[in-house]
Amino acid sequence: MQPFRIDVPEHVLADLRVRLSRTRFTPASDHTRWNAGADPTDLRALVEHWQDGFDWRQVEARLNKYSQYLTEVDGRRVHFVHVKSPRRGALPLVLTHGWPSCFVEMLAVADRLAADFDVVIPSLPGFGYSETPHGPFTGHRIAETWQHLMTTTLGYQRYGAFGGDIGGSVTQWLGALFPASVVGIHMTSGSLTAGIDSSAVTPDERIYLEAEQAYDAQDGGYSAIMRTRPDTIAAALTDSPAGLLAWIADKYRDWSDCEGDLKARWEADDLLTVATLYWATGSIGSSFRPYYDHPHTGPRPPITVPTAITLSHESLMAGFPRSLAERAFPNLRHFARPDRGGHFMAHEEPDYLAEELRTFFRPLT
Fold first, then answer.
1. Quick one: signal sequence residues (predicted)?
2. pLDDT tens digits for range 106-115
3. Is residue 175 a contact partner of residue 189, using CB atoms and an 8 Å limit?
4. C-alpha to C-alpha distance for 306 and 329, rounded to whole angstroms
């Protein structure tokens, strides 16, 4: 385990600025902004700010105020943030981000939890400064990596786990595989309907499951290419920073609780921080591996540990019935349906989410 500081070489930033200055923008395909994807006008403004107004060194200095480390698990490098509580014997929590996010999403929540908990924020394998795993990227494999990180590397005997999206799936695998170590799991999204017997659902549950399928069909263009031809799109996004930013910003707008107005929820520097980390590490292509490797995911064992769900306020979760959660998680102890905070809830609503986590995990210490 080695201390780590982010230090993007100056030549990487200089090359980024040159590439941004040479961006070729496409005309809009639809007169309704964002209807056909990233709006060219909004994208141009973000690209221009990335080139001339965004101060990466200032962001880098802020990120480096957090204690970051590199360690090796199963022969691969894992990057993580470790925020230690001043409270002796504090329960550790591992917080796992999703796609197209990164560890930065969890920092504001970690700040709010540090008085009561030790907080560990790993970068998913293939994201940022964590190396791509050997073999398929599955929730099962990443849960095994996190278990090693928490118990062997950091020496914790018991810990709690939280995540959304891919992080939610990893969190569920932690609860399923390591109930002797994991005191409880908390999710905002991520495979909440995995393993459900669709032949035995109630009418309300069937309505939701059909709506989920319809949403996936409408929203699934990005995932279809990432599942089937990830290297093709990765070649474009690894070479074009504007293309990379469009790919990421489209999802931050569509999945966050912003009612279609990207600027209403996100500062430009928040989006550019995420984009710069992907660009500087060249990791957008490897971040597609969970999609490409999804067919390798096997059946998940039953989850019996205490479970909490705070549903993200996004289209995919609209109408999700509590009965589905109770069917998937027999030890469901907390279920909340807030009216705010989307796919990136930890970043969007850190005060609310921190209180949700504190409420659920404090009795489990």
1. none
2. 999 999 999 9
3. no
4. 8
Which conformational region is residue 165 in: left (phi greater than 0), alpha (psi within -120 to 50 degrees), or beta?
Answer: left
Q: Residue 111 is encoded by which pair of tokens?
A: 């700040």
d(CA 348, CA 48): 24
Domain limits at 327?
A: 2-6+39-190+197-364
* Residue 238: alpha-carbon gap to chain centroid: 20
Contact, 188 vs 347, CB < 8 A?
A: no
Neighbour-count burial of 249, counting CB atoms closer than 10 A to its CB (0-12 exposed, 13-18 middle, 19+ buried): buried
pTM: 0.95
The secondary element (H helix, E strand) that includes residue 307 is strand 307-310
The pLDDT confidence band at residue 212, using thresholds 50, 70 and 90, is confident
In a domain, 241, yes or no: yes
- The CATH number given to whatever domain includes residue 126 is 3.40.50.1820
